[in-house]
Design brief:
Blueprint lengths: L1 E4 L6 E4 L3 E3 L2 E3 L5 H6 L8 E7 L5 E7 L7 E7 L1 E8 L10 E7 L5 E4 L3 E7 L4 E7 L8 E3 L20 H4 L9 H8 L4
Antiparallel strand pairs: 1-2, 2-10, 3-4, 5-12, 6-11, 6-13, 7-10, 7-12, 8-9, 8-11
Length: 190
C-alpha cells in the first residue's frame, strides 16, 4: 500500500501497490502493521456496503461523538464517488476544514477517515457501491451530522444533489450548534 498524507493531519489517501502479471494483479488493501507504521489506527470491528441507484446521490455528513467515535476506511468498489470529510476535532488547527477525494472502482483508491471527522460522499455514476471498514459499531445516541449544503463549510459537490435522505437534509447548520454541542464532539472545548 502507498500512503499519501493530506493537508489535514491524520487523514490519508491510500493507493494499492499492485503486483501484476498476465493474469491480472494482486494487491494488499489492508494490513494492520502497515497502518500502524503510517500512524493510522488499524482497529476494524465492522464492514458495511452502501449501494446507490443514481448519480448525484448524496450520503452524509455523518460522524459519532465520544464515547463512540469511529475511524473509517472508505473504498468505492463499483462506479465512482467524491468523498468529503470535515475535521470536527476540538482544538484542531484544521477544525471545520475538509478534504475531498475521488474514489472509483478503476483507481481502487481508499480514504482513511480519522475519528471525529464528518464523512459523506456524492455518487458520480449510476449503480455505485461503496465499502466502509469501521472501527466500531453504530451507536444511535452518539450519531451526529452536518448539512452537505452548509454555507459555513463551503463544501463543493460536482453534480447537482439528486437524492438525499430527509435525515441528512435536516442536520443543523454549523452556526446553529452551541458551544456545548461542539465541546461534546470530543470532550474538548471548541
Amino acid at each position: 500500500m502507498i500512503f499519501h498524507s493530506t493537508p489535514i493531519a491524520g487523514v490519508a489517501i491510500i493507493d494499492l501497490e499492485e503486483r501484476s502479471d498476465d493474469r491480472g494483479f494482486f494487491a494488499r488493501s489492508f494490513d494492520r502493521a502497515e497502518f500502524e507504521a503510517a500512524g493510522l489506527d488499524p482497529h476494524i470491528e465492522q464492514s458495511n456496503i452502501s449501494f446507490n441507484h443514481r448519480a448525484g446521490t448524496l450520503r452524509g455528513m455523518h460522524f459519532q461523538i465520544s464515547p463512540h467515535p469511529e475511524t473509517k476506511l472508505i473504498r468505492c468498489t463499483r462506479g465512482a464517488i467524491v468523498d468529503t470529510i470535515v475535521d470536527m476535532r476540538g482544538g484542531s488547527p484544521t477544525r471545520f476544514e475538509h478534504v475531498s477525494v475521488e474514489l472509483t472502482a478503476e483507481n481502487r483508491r481508499a480514504l482513511y477517515v480519522p475519528a471525529y471527522f464528518a464523512h459523506g460522499y456524492q455518487t458520480l455514476t449510476d449503480a455505485t457501491e461503496v465499502t466502509y471498514m469501521v472501527s466500531g459499531g453504530y451507536a444511535p445516541a452518539a450519531e451526529r451530522g452536518l448539512r452537505h449544503d452548509d454555507p459555513d463549510l463551503g463544501l463543493s459537490w460536482p453534480l447537482p444533489v439528486a437524492d438525499v435522505s430527509a435525515k441528512d437534509a435536516s442536520w443543523p447548520l454549523l452556526s446553529e450548534w452551541s458551544d456545548e454541542q461542539l465541546a461534546a464532539v470530543t470532550g474538548r472545548l471548541p
